[in-house]
Amino acid sequence: MDFIVFSDDWGEHPSSSQHLFRQIARDHRVLWVNTVGMRRPRLNAADLRKAARKLRHMLRRTPAAGGPRGSVPPENLVIVQPPMLPLPGLGAARAFNDWSAIRVIRSALTHHGMSRPVVVTTVPNACDVVDHLDASLIVYYCVDDFAAWPGNDRRVVQRMEARLIARADVLLATSGALFEALRSSGKPTLRFDHGVDAEHFAGPCGREHPRLASLPKPRAGFFGLLDERVDDALLAQIARRMPEWTFVLAGPQVAALAQSASCPNIIRIGSLPYTELPPFVDGVDVLIIPYRVNEFTQTISPLKLNEYLATGRPVVSSALAESARRGPLVRIAGRADEWVDALRRALHDDRHERLTAVADLLRGLSWREKSVSFLELIEARIGRR
After folding, report:
1. If 231 and its partner were Cys, which of 69, 109, 292, 316 is the partner (CB 3.0–4.6 Å)?
2. Tens digits of per-residue pLDDT, 298-309?
3. Which of 96, 170, 152 is nearest to 128 (CA)?
4. Of the CATH numbers 3.50.50.60, 3.40.50.2000, 3.40.50.720, 3.40.630.30, which one belongs to the domain with range 2-195+366-384?
């Protein structure tokens, strides 16, 4: 089969769609379309760096072989970066983006001899492009409630998603809340949980990341985007109540998080390549997800959750629906005092007992197994058309 995938920029960060299609591209051809975001860029350092990087990619005749994290794409995966304007609220800009994407994608399909592709999109702003590509099937692989994303125009994104759902043949949801929301459309809807590269994260790896060597223990660790989902005030309260602990945050910072920045025992070490996450995990005692609990975060299924569990480290999380679904394997905490208690108790968890339970939970969730399941459901849907 041939695939067209609309998603985040290849190599920008290890997303679920990239993990999935890295496996699928072993045996099938994939045309990966880097897209633009659904909110206006802000005048801050993170957005300006991203805008400059996007512009460089758009100006290249041939996309870079890998992303900024060194994620080299598989041989069967081709990346295209149509020129696009990051102005989702402006009709003229959206019309230009659609025209540009269709033109670039059709040219790439012809050049590579691809036909009747399965079109998969994780982003609603592909809504007016997907049915111009002679698709054999259109799949909306829904990984987030983008209408509720901080900074997105809710009404604009809701209209995009409604048009995409109307044109899609099947809807996939990565969380229970997203599944219920999509199922109400009446379209065929399936739950498709995130996979995990358990072998990559299962420790110990035998070496602690050098960025952690001088930091006092015990250590609580977080990896991922430091964005508006992180409860900055809560994190600061926890750190101030636990001055003997070090809280290590690894990942690109795209939100201010000013309160936690003032805490001397909260250390931000910036982005780490995917290959360096195991030694990072090897150097922490507990892994944390200190997210705000709100309309948006109650719909998400953090990719890092299964990755955290695969490490065998204790996990403490805010009261997210998908964290609570993992039962006793994830300690749930709300107020700062609950976090303090949960973190201290986590240090004494039975590691062997936890690893046995984690192995049962993650069985069948390798990205290779998820890719097989994905291909089976695609073939089944095509067979019904």
Report:
1. 292
2. 999 999 999 999
3. 96
4. 3.40.50.2000
In degrees, rounded to 5, the angle at the alpha carbon of residue 328 between the alpha carbons of residues 322 and 333 is: 65
Strands 29-34, 118-121: pairing is: unpaired
103-118 b/e with 16+ CB inside 10 Å = b? Answer: ebbeebbeeeebeebb
Name every residue whose Cβ is closer than 8 Å to that of residue 114 and which is 6 or more positions away in sequence: 2, 29, 31, 108
pLDDT in tens, 261-311: 999 999 999 999 999 999 999 999 999 999 999 999 999 999 999 999 999
- Under a CB-based contact definition with an 8 Å cutoff, are residues 127 and 164 in contact? yes
Contact 329, 158 (CB under 8 A): no
Longest CA span, the chain: 61
The pTM (predicted TM-score) of the whole model is 0.90
> Which residue spans of the chain are classified as CATH 3.40.50.2000?
2-195+366-384, 198-362
Strand partners for 171:
140, 189
